[in-house]
Amino acid sequence: MRYQNFENIMSAPRMNRYLIAAGNDTRKAMLLYRKNLQLSQELFIVISCFEVALRNAIDTHYKTILGNHWLRDAGVRGGIFDNRNCRGSKDAINGGVASLGGQYSPDKLLAEMRFGFWRYLFANHQYRMAGRNLLRIFPAKPRSTPSIQYNQTYISDIHELLKLIFLINKFFVYCI
After folding, report:
1. Would you say residue 39 lies in a domain?
2. Phi and psi dihedrals of 81, rounded to 5?
3. Domain assignment present for 31
4. In the prediction, which pLDDT does 166 show?
5. Helix 26-66 and helix 3-10, axial crossing angle in degrees, nearest 10
6. Looking at the domain assignment, is residue 75 inside a domain?
7. pTM for the full predicted model
8. For residue 2, what is the DSSP state?
9. How many domains does the structure of the chain reveal?
10. What are phi and psi of 162, to 5 degrees?
11. Cβ-count burial of 32 within 10 angstroms (0-12 exposed, 13-18 middle, 19+ buried)?
């Protein structure tokens, strides 16, 4: 494909950063763009698998402690997230239930929740309201030391790691 056609499809502002990184070599700019897409695909696969594994581990853990409908029940009146500090989690659960209409099942609700929801289960209020036991899903978690505490706050910083991965991906073009 000719560069001009490629640029028309992708947009000049988007391709400009690749063109600059490639020293105005249009072939190299298109190659960099494709390489960035490939890297994005690989990272997406890793992040998606991580999300599913985390979600399933949390679900298994809470089903054992709170029952098969723990997620739906956490968002109802009197549920563990029925308080002002956990309102976002409660709203996310109830939004998921509503989006399922009459087709609710624990597995379908589980799939409705986004990664941010699972991460927030490690936030102080959610972690405390759910019984302060969610770290048990990490049996090989390192022991805390005075300088590094591997607690729910450390785990909730996974979001920062994901932001770093996306930042690295975004700037990948400048490393080739």
Report:
1. no
2. -105, 15
3. no
4. 57
5. 40
6. yes
7. 0.75
8. -
9. 1
10. -65, -40
11. buried
* Residue 13, domain member (yes or no): no
- Residue count of the chain: 176
Cβ contact 29:3 at 8 Å: yes
| DSSP category for residue 133 | -
Give residue 37's identity as a one-letter amino acid code.
Answer: L
CA distance 149 to 118: 20
Structure tokens at 100: 């399922």
Tell me the pLDDT of the chain (176 aa) as tens digits. 898 998 999 899 989 989 999 999 999 999 998 988 888 788 778 878 888 998 999 999 999 999 999 999 999 999 999 999 999 999 999 999 999 999 999 999 999 999 889 988 988 999 999 999 998 998 887 787 888 777 777 666 666 666 655 555 555 544 44
Q: Using DSSP, state whether 27 is helix, strand or coil.
A: helix
Domain of 91, in residue numbers: 53-175
Residues 6+ apart with CB under 8 A from 43: 165, 166, 169
CA atoms within 13 A on the CB side of 75: 20
- Ramachandran quadrant class, 141 (left: phi over 0; alpha: psi -120 to 50; beta: rest): beta
Q: What is the pLDDT of residue 37?
A: 86
Q: Which two tokens stand for residue 18?
A: 């690749």
